[in-house]
Design a protein that fits this description.
Blueprint (H helix, E strand, L loop, with lengths): L5 E4 L9 H14 L6 H4 L7 H11 L8 H19 L11 H10 L3 E4 L6 H8 L7 E2 L13 H9 L7 E5 L2 H9 L3 E5 L10 E3 L7 H12 L1
Parallel strand pairs: 1-2, 1-4, 2-3, 4-5, 5-6
The structure holds 1,6-di-O-phosphono-beta-D-glucopyranose and magnesium ion (MG).
């Protein structure tokens, strides 16, 4: 029976809730250019890269043809500046309940920990959350060919940690993230509703409910 060697955590929606800030920053930006979208549509942006998110918002509002690529890059940069201002004050209090205990328990069991987020702001957020010391590796999306749902982010984490994909667990709150974990050949832990986490090997309703014993039990059955 194979032993679990590493866990690759997504960031937004799994360790902390930065999606609210992404939502507010995008809303502020697009309101300035005369368009709007609601919280329900924002669900489609979870786990999706910055430029792809902007593209989706423009398509949703029927404005995809109104901006050149250069203008889009400038506007997305502006959104990011507003987002960075919003997340400046992030502290360990912004971690979901139970995260530190979970990371400590993984450390005690010599299970490696990586962050597989599509966010270019991930290193700064991890620092603000005060969990740098638990993390063995943060995937650098600038070095990754394709974002989620492609497996690249998760495969890069397993390669750098020198473990096989089947020796890794991925934890995600986004549909594209679960797809990416499964495409990488890893065991997928989903955080969210059953319909959204379709394809996950085990599902928890919220990040606060993540239970390592239950995860390991299901993982071991999956490896058999
Ligand atoms: P940035 P995750 C994702 O984080 C967010 O869910 C998504 O809404 C955002 O567009 C993406 O990061 C990129 O973030 O603009 O900071 O590079 O869920 O992959 O941790
Ligand atoms: Mg996420």
């Amino acid at each position: 029976m194979g032993k679990l060697k590493a866990v690759v955590f997504d960031l937004d929606g799994v360790l902390t809730e930065t999606s609210e800030y992404h939502y507010f920053a995008w809303k502020k930006l697009v309101n300035e250019i005369g368009i709007d979208f609601d919280r329900e549509f924002n669900e489609n942006l979870k786990g999706v890269s910055r430029m792809e998110s902007f593209e989706r918002i423009l398509i949703h509002c029927g404005k995809q043809k109104e901006y050149t690529q250069e203008e889009k890059i400038k506007l997305a940069h502006k959104k990011n500046e507003m987002y960075k201002e919003m997340i400046k004050g992030i502290t360990p209090n912004d971690l979901f309940k139970g995260v530190v205990e979970l990371l400590e328990e993984l450390g005690r069991r010599n299970i490696k920990i990586a962050i597989g987020s599509v966010s270019r702001n991930a290193p700064g957020i991890i620092k603000g959350l005060g969990i740098e010391k638990y993390i063995d590796y943060i995937v650098d999306v600038d070095k990754i060919k394709q974002g989620k749902p492609a497996p690249d982010i998760f495969l890069n984490a397993s390669e750098v940690l020198m473990v096989k994909p089947e020796e890794c667990i991925g934890v995600e709150d986004a549909e594209v993230g679960i797809e990416a974990i499964k495409a990488a050949g890893m065991f997928a832990v989903g955080v969210g509703t059953e319909d959204k986490m379709y394809g996950a090997d085990i599902i928890f309703a919220s990040p606060e409910g993540l239970n390592l014993d239950r995860i390991l039990e299901a993982y071991e059955l999956w490896r058999k």
